[in-house]
Each structure stands twice: as structure tokens, then as C-alpha cells.
Amino acid sequence: MLANSEKSIADSLEVNKRLLPHMPFLLQDLWVLGSSADQIIEVVGSLKSLSPLKKILDIGCGKGAVSIQLVARYGFQAVGIDAMSPFLEEAEKKGSERNVSHLCQFINQDIREYVSNDHDYDLVILAALGGIFGSFQNTIAKMRTQVHSGGFMIIDDGYLKKGNHLNRKSYGHYKNYDNTIWELTFFGDRIINQVDTSEVSKNINREYLDLIKRRGEELISKHRELKKDINDYIRLQEEECDVLENDIEGALWVIRKR
Ligand SMILES: C[S@@+](CC[C@H](N)C(=O)[O-])C[C@H]1O[C@@H](n2cnc3c(N)ncnc32)[C@H](O)[C@@H]1O
After folding, report:
1. In the chain, what are the domains?
2. What number does the ligand 1 atom closest to the CA of 126 have?
3. How many beta carbons lie within 10 A of that of residue 143, not counting itself?
4. What's the 257 CA to ligand 1 centre distance in angstroms?
């Protein structure tokens, strides 16, 4: 794991730094790490008729669940960036199991550093990364540097059902619907699709929580000293499921750069 990416990774996984080295163990039963992968794959299918897509970028790709499935289904070339090497090793493995390794490149780098250089991808995806770049306006500002004009950006995240602020760590970027859309289109880009992800994610999140809890118990039996950290993490995950069900409408947006 890259040292200066630790805090960002820990925030994105909602875990404290002490538990970070154990996340590959706790999350071993999950391929998708929090995004609406199936829905992303479906909406990308509908983009191909608008413009030929060849090169895609998956920022914060985790174990590659989104990019590998896109490559396997549509034959793109994908670059996935993540700073958690055990996740990338898993991504390599999955890529070779699906015979798409030659079309995938996984890079161990901090995504904030990667996007500081411009690129000309056809599509960039930010799935379940929350407010890593701050507000939605800042997020889109970064993402649009990664695609050419007319290219696509997919953000898998959401907006507040009520109010315009949520007082929870790593949730500071959430706004109400109108403000979210205002920020996403601040640079004159066009939202060409919006998919509601709440219902699907609700069931998946609960299912994943059970898997994580089981691995948590296993880890506690081997590392008693981690008991408090693990229980805190599970409690936060339970809370997160509640917040996602009660306060946030899950949405994924497809935005076309002008
Ligand atoms: C919640 S997971 C989502 C993974 C993936 N998009 C998916 O849906 O399966 C967030 C990912 O972002 C990565 N991450 C967080 N901050 C990062 C950073 N600054 N640089 C690189 N990767 C980062 C984490 O290692 C983790 O794999």
C-alpha cells in the first residue's frame, strides 16, 4: 500500500488505519467493493451507440470488478488505478481468469496523482469513491481532465433525500438533488443518463455486511487485539447501511463532456 494514500484509502473504506492491512482478509468474499457494477455495465452498453468506446479508465478500481466486467463484455481496453496492492493483485487474477489480461492494465498509484496529468480516455468511471476529490464540482473538474471532448464520465454515488448537508465523516460532499445536478453540470457538460441505484444496493449492502461480519469474527479469533477495531468497523458498516437507506438516494450519472 502506498504510504501517503493510506488516509484516503482508509476513508474510502470507512476503516481506521490500524485495520487497513486486514481489509483484504475482511473483504475477501467481495469482488465489487461498494459500487453498482451491474448497472454501470448496463448503462455503458447504451453508450456504445453514441460514440465508439475503446479506452476506459477506472479510478479507484479496487479489485477491478467494474473494469474487468466491462472489458469482458464489450472488449474495451481498460486502465484501473488503485493504491491498495492486494486489491490490484486480485484484479490481475480475475482478469486472467476471464481471459482479458491483455486488455487490462492495473496501476498501483494514488489516483489524485494520476489525475493531475491530463489523459484522453473515451470513458472515465468513479465508482463508490465518495468525496475523494471534495465536492461534486471538484470531482467533475478532475474527471473531465481524463477524457477527450465528447467523452463520457460515470459517477456512481448519490444525493441527499432531505436537507443539504450530512454530518458524517466522508459524507461532506453530499447535497440535495438540485445542488448536486448544478455541481455536476457546472462546466457545461450534459447529463445524458441517470439511474436510481438505491433499491439494488440496499439488498447487496446487507448481503455484503453479513459476509464481512463472518470474516470479522474469524479475524477476532486470530487477533484478539483487533477486537475493538473490528467491532467498530462492523458497527460503522451497519450505520452506513442505515444512512444509505434513509438519507441518501443512490444514483449513477452518465455525463458527456462538452
Ligand atoms: C469503496 S472501494 C471501490 C472500489 C471499486 N471502484 C469498486 O466499486 O469495486 C474504494 C477504492 O478506492 C481506493 N482508493 C481510495 N483512495 C485512493 C487513492 N487516493 N488512490 C488510489 N486508490 C484509492 C481504495 O483502495 C479502494 O480500492
Report:
1. 3-13+33-198+249-256 (3.40.50.150)
2. 6
3. 26
4. 23
